[in-house]
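Hi Y.,

Following your request, here is the sequence exactly as I used it, all 91 residues.
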Amino acid sequence: MGCKCKEKYANIAKYSDDEEPFKKFNIIENILMFLGRIIMAILVAVLIIIIVPLFLVYMIVCYLFGKSPIINLDKLTRYISKHKEKQILTD
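Below is the corresponding structure, written out as tokens. Let me know if you'd prefer a different format.
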């Protein structure tokens, strides 16, 4: 009553170019991958720490003046969709 994981991987290997469907990383690649994940987590945390308080201040100021907070992402979505075909996000 075992799972059929080995059979599934054997079928994947049969139809793929590589003999082994999943790459095994050596210790250096594992360390670099771990460091990359740590760096990305730190960058995302810093962005959240910067953006969330600014957003909260904006919401509080809007409510103090009796206006509803509006976040318009129309320009951003138009910018992304305009450059989606080129795969270049620099202007």
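The first helix runs from residue 5 to 15.

Thanks again,
Q.
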